[in-house]
Amino acid sequence: MNCDEARDLMHPLLDGELDAKHARAVEVHAEGCTGCAAELSSLRDLQKTIFAAQLCYPAPESLRLRIERALPRPAIRPSRREWLQGFALGAGLSAIAASGVFVAVLREDKESPILSDIVSAHLRALEPDHLTDVPSSDRHSVKPWFNGKVDAAPPVPDLSAEGFALIGGRLDAIGGKMVAAIVYKKRAHIINLFVAPGAAGERLPAIEKAQGFNVRHWTEDGVSLFAISDLNAAELADFAAAFSAAAAQTGK
Asked: At how many degrees (to 10) do helices 20-31 and 3-14 cross?
């Protein structure tokens, strides 16, 4: 990836619109390019300033209705099953090519935008100087830091007795929204816990594997929590259980 390509993708990266592969490519390029690294850092600082100032306002329902009325009616499209049947009957393509496209279609169905955002955010956090905005092992320092920066201050329990050390917290983007990220560590394994108000737009399995990471998802009091790490699935499940129990005991 060259500088022009990286700069074109910086805004989509910060808006959470890139998949994990392209997000990683931009970040790897920035690691070896002083100019792009400075520009990406400047854009991240600007994004944090904008979100902290709470300058985003929801568009009125009347605007959505006006846009929908102005858009042309979409033509009726064939179902995916019909498209695949027609494709299989098409002439001039080899069995290998047909198989390759078929696999790509199935993979597209399985991909989760939220899951992709979580992996991208986790990879960004693992870059030097991106893990925390407030580095601290004191929950009484980390929890109040989020006040005024997100819709609700997230629970930040002390899990050191369970073997999960608090590292700090930061702001991150998931699903195009600014959310709280709480960082824990077990041995050499980083755990990023994203706390997103609401259902985060889609349902996910309790445990998921993505890009070599385990992702644990659960909800509490209308809040979605996503824990991601290279820890094995059993230990990540232990973390989720310990977090929920401790958060309930401390009153969040």
From this structure: 130
Residue 192 clears pLDDT 90, i.e. is over it:
yes
pLDDT bin (cut points 50, 70, 90) of residue 70 is confident
Q: Where are the domains of the chain?
A: 3-52, 61-110, 113-249
For the sheet with 189-197, list strands across it: 134-135, 165-174, 177-186, 189-197, 223-229, 213-220, 207-210
Q: Is 165 helix (H, G, I), strand (E, B) or coil?
A: strand
Residue 190's pLDDT band, with cuts at 50, 70 and 90, is very high
Distance CA 112, CA 159 (A): 30
Give the E-state strand segments of 34-125 in sequence order.
none
Beta strand residue intervals within the chain, DSSP E: 134-135, 165-174, 177-186, 189-197, 207-210, 213-220, 223-229
Radius of gyration over every alpha carbon of the chain, rounded to an integer in angstroms:
21
Give the model's pLDDT for residue 101. Answer: 41
Rounded to 10°, the helix 34-52/20-31 angle is 120
Domain 113-249 in CATH 3.40.50.720? The answer is: no
Using alpha carbons, list the distances in angstroms from residue 191 to 39, 86, 105, 118, 131. 28, 46, 32, 12, 10
State pLDDT tens for residues 101-155. Answer: 433 333 333 446 788 889 989 998 988 888 999 999 999 999 999 988 887 778 9
In this structure, the dihedral spanned by the alpha carbons of residues 81, 82, 88 and 92, taken in order and rounded to 10 degrees, is -140
* CA 246 to each of CA 84, 142, 235: distance values in angstroms, whole numbers, following the listed order: 50, 16, 16
